[in-house]
# Entry
Amino acid sequence: SLAIAMYPVDGLGYEALSMCADTAMYRAKQGGRQTYRFFTREMQDRTDRTLQIENALRRALWLEQLYLVYQPQLAASSDQVIGVEALIRGQHPTLGLVSPAEFIPVAEDSGLILPVGEWVLRKAVSQMALWLKEGLPLHVMAVNLSAIQFRQANLPELVSQILEEYDLPPHCLELELTEGVAMDNPLAAIEVMGDLHARGVRMSIDDFGTGYSSLSYLKRFKVYKLKIDQSFVRDIACDPEDEAIVEAIIGLSRSLGLRTIAEGVETQQQLDFLREKGCDEVQGYLFARPMSADEL
Ligand code: C2E
Ligand code: CA
Ligand code: CA
# Structure
């Protein structure tokens, strides 16, 4: 990896130039190595922003700047809400609302994902327990899990402990994992998933179809549901290839005895197609956006 900083635009002395080159070097490595990057101002801005987000995350855990929103998941055939997915949000004093797509990677790079992830689990489980006590007809609370959390040695124990703490039956919790989590080290994944499954917790594969799932492993993971990625759902009704992919995923799940949920459903046309093909569940703006616990 090579990085290039230019005198005099990037800096007048060795110190300044070397710092710029460092920033560019980080990008070259991020870009997959065997490459080079010229330093640009935009890199500096993004580094500053990343630092700001990281600092905020360190404080946010204490200052309650993080909160969860919930998006309903419905049965495709009846329009009944059967579950919700918890999605994290961060309110930053100067950056405003920061999306998880931006701050989850920062949390992962800085190791903060473990306390943040545990906080999410606790919050979501306690909210679900409360809703059940209030008599809401929900069956499942889905929580996103980062690959780093999944590799945490005591994850199954932690999950059980949190469920016990709030007296929530394990089958009411569903952990959403991406294909990458499972495929990084399939044998280890089979073990952890087996453990969680034995504890009664459900697991689903998020963004299914965008990674490289090995179909032979899929059978051995104790997953319960496949989430069809929204990129395929988006182009239903205009791209025959995406329609074919969606149909194939539904067929595959069926024959493996898994459920399917389509995410990012925005139009009636998409819903009609999914119903016709036998997709079990749906989630998306057509029904509801993610919302606060009170609104839900
Ligand atoms: P995801 O798990 O694939 O979540 C679905 C994303 O699609 C959410 O974005 C949701 O708000 C959005 N969405 C839902 N319905 C529609 C729709 O009809 N149309 C469109 N265009 N979008 C829709 P969000 O909340 O910004 O989350 C982005 C990603 O951040 C999530 O993708 C997930 O990977 C990650 N994330 C969110 N919360 C957590 C968390 O607590 N822990 C971890 N590790 N990751 C999280
Ligand atoms: Ca998800
Ligand atoms: Ca997804």
In short: The longest helix spans residues 41-63. The chain has a mean pLDDT of 92. The pocket of calcium ion (ligand 2) is lined by residues 85, 144, 176, 206 (CB under 6 Å).
